[in-house]
Amino acid sequence: MPTDSARLHAVFDLAMRVGEGLLTNGAAASEVTATVLRITSSSGLRNVAVQVTFDEVTISYLPDELSAPFTRVRAASERVQDFARLAAYEDVTFGYISGDLSLEEARHQAAAIPQEKPPYRLSLVCAGFGLLGGGAALSLGANWLVVIAATLAAALMILVDTVLTRRRIPRFYSQALGGFLAVGVAVLLGALDPSLNPSIVVVACIIVLLAGLTSIGAMQDAVTGWYVTAAGRILETLMLTVGIVAGVRGGLLVADLVGVDVSISSATPVSLASVLVLVVAGAVMGLGFGVGAQVPMRMLAAVALVAAGSAGLSHLLSDVVDRVYAVGVASFLVGVAAVVLGDRMRAPTLVFVMGGVVPLVPGSRIYRGLLALGDAVPDGALELFSAGEIAIGIAAGAVLGQLLASRVVGARQIAYTPMISVPFTTMRRRRLSVGTRRRARGRDGVALVEPSTMTGEMTALSPSMLEELDPTSAAGDRRTDPEERA
């Protein structure tokens, strides 16, 4: 095989592996596209087109007008909640475009990521999500017995979900079974001690089941114009939520048959008198989610800190403004903090966003809506609609925070910052979105673009090419056609 062809296959192999890994682990379509283009541009390839859909990444390269395009398609595997892998893919990307890793080293590391053992065993993952459930119950004002019950119920749900997933059972059914098990534990707790409020167990388990869904990525894709991917992710989130609803409704029917009251009380929503207790509960939820989602150990403290801040802030703001705006402001600050922490710690911002918004999930409103559907359908629908408003407020606030913060941090960083952009419609828009290569330089001052051996045209990057990649240069503007300038 000729050298040029071999290198082309190698670059595409690296780009496809990284693109699939990011998409599988929850990255937005704009971030996947920008990352793939960074890899190909750093390899000296122009005229590369990237198409990202819900479960597929397509890359096409046209050397010149007389050549046939070279295209590769890679289907993304089932989405997982493994932020250690997401961080590993971003590390490989940063190492390659900064020149610390050669092409073969980067390919080897990217290929090895799916085979690496996760940081935490299944027992720790179940314990982490159990801790998340216990923290959620604590934030709702539960006593120690209810907190223990919520912890055990959440851990059991995750264990069952993992077993079913390994047996290739669709997640819709595992979500439904999880909701049914949550009500079952609540019924058992209510039968043992009628003076307790077992509904808190159900609400805590709903929060655990909803944590980590792709709503953040779906909202980012929707507001930035990546509608195909957004539609798929929104439908996936809705189907998994419907699975939870079906399981909880089935459990409520069993509760009525055995005569156990699992109705929610007026004190169940966040109304703790002590903000300190709520902050501690938020930190516990963030820590539990981090362990359950395979967040590397060096990031756990930061995730817990962001979650604690969002829990306390949203509680304080809820007394001043409507709950939707309170969680919107809190999630906006979570997005800003995620970009800053991602830049400082060289970590994916999605890790801090997902962990930080967990305390804001409207589990109590969802449960109220499900209870009300049995007696008054309009009231139940109104509660579920309010829960949907809060969910949209969380996602929209987090995306806006990342968008604004990344404009500041991204000016001096070429990785570890989210690329929130509309789809590329012109070459100039692509250059503006991917970034200026002239600003990105290694430790020795050398531009972070690796020479290419693809064709005679791309043997090396000439100064004129660097000017073309710089959208602020006069030469780059002269090469832009009048329609693009308009």
Characterization of this structure:
- This protein is mainly alpha-helical.
- It folds into two domains: 1-117 and 424-486, no CATH class; 122-409, no CATH class.
- It has helices spanning 3-24, 29-42, 83-97, 103-112, 122-139, 144-166, 171-192, 199-210, 215-223, 227-258, 275-292, 297-318, 323-345, 349-356, 363-373, 377-409, 427-434, 463-469, 474-479, 482-485, and strands spanning 48-52, 56-61, 70-75.
- A three-stranded antiparallel beta sheet has the order 1-2-3, covered by helices on one side.
- It is elongated.
- The model is unreliable at 266-271 and 436-486 (pLDDT under 50).
The proportion of residues in beta strands is: under 5%
Biggest β-sheet: strands ordered side by side in the sheet = 1-2-3
Q: What structural category do the secondary elements indicate?
A: mainly alpha
Number of domains: 2
The rough form would be described as elongated
Q: Name the quaternary structure.
A: single chain
Order of helices and strands: HHEEEHHHHHHHHHHHHHHHHHH
Q: Report the average pLDDT across residues.
A: 79
> How far is the N terminus from the C terminus?
44 Å
| Spatial extent as radius of gyration | 24 Å
Number of E-type strands: 3
Counting H and I runs of at least 4 residues, what is the number of helices?
Answer: 20
**Sheet with the most strands, sense and barrel status:** 3 strands, antiparallel
Helix share bin: 55-70%
Subcellular location: Cell membrane
Keywords: Cell membrane, Membrane, Transmembrane, Transmembrane helix
Family: Belongs to the ThrE exporter (TC 2.A.79) family.
Transmembrane segments: 144-164, 176-192, 198-218, 238-258, 270-292, 299-318, 324-342, 349-367, 387-405
